[in-house]
Amino acid sequence: MTATRNNAAVGALLSTAGLDDSIKPKSYLETYSAATAGATVTLDLSVATSFSVTLDQNTTFVFSNPPASGTAYSFTLVITQPSSAKTITWPSSVDWAAATAPDAPGASEVNAYGFLTRDAGTTYYGFLGGAALG
Fold first, then answer.
1. Which of 52, 60, 91, 98 has the fewest CB atoms in 10 Å of its CB?
2. What's the burial of 50, exposed, middle or buried (CB within 10 Å: 0-12/13-18/19+)?
3. Spatial separation of the C-alpha atoms in residues 105 and 56, rounded to whole Å
4. Are 61 and 89 spatial neighbours (Cβ–Cβ below 8 Å)?
5. DSSP string of the chain?
6. Beta-bridge mates of residue 87
7. What is the rounded distance in angstroms from the CA atom of residue 70 to the CA atom of residue 68?
């Protein structure tokens, strides 16, 4: 009986506050971090959900600090190539479509990539979101 009253009380409180069983934000903002270029670029997933980097040399990416297993987490990475294109090495934990990473951006181009993990970074599903954007 107590649980029923508590559920009713919570329902009344939500109704009084103008809320129902769904919350619809008016806006959704993500945290952005511009990564520093280098031979190894570590993206600290505990500080942002949107990253960018302008390459200045061949680069290996490292993803650190994903949330615990059971929490879905996604992030974007925008890569800008200089006029002389550099290579990209992805973490071995990234699972690309057909087990093949997309091409890196061409010289002076911009590519956007998306990543999703649900298992604390054991596997990241990788997607090319846009190629030759700039």
1. 98
2. middle
3. 13
4. yes
5. -HHHHHHHHHHHHHHHTT--S----S-----EEEPPPSSEEEEETTT-SEEEEE-SS-EEEEEE-PPPTT--EEEEEEEE--SS---EE--TTEE-GGG-PPPPP-TT-EEEEEEEESSTTS-EEEEEEESS--
6. none
7. 6
pLDDT of residue 27: 81
Residue reference for tokens 């002389």: 84
User: In the structure encoding, which two tokens stand for residue 21, read together?
Assistant: 């069983």
Tens-place pLDDT, residues 49-88: 999 999 999 999 999 999 999 999 999 999 999 999 999 9
User: Which sign does the torsion angle of CA 82, 87, 91, 97 carry?
Assistant: positive
The answer to whether 130 and 102 are in contact (CB under 8 A) is: no
Q: How far apart are the C-alpha atoms of 24 and 10, rounded to whole Å?
A: 18
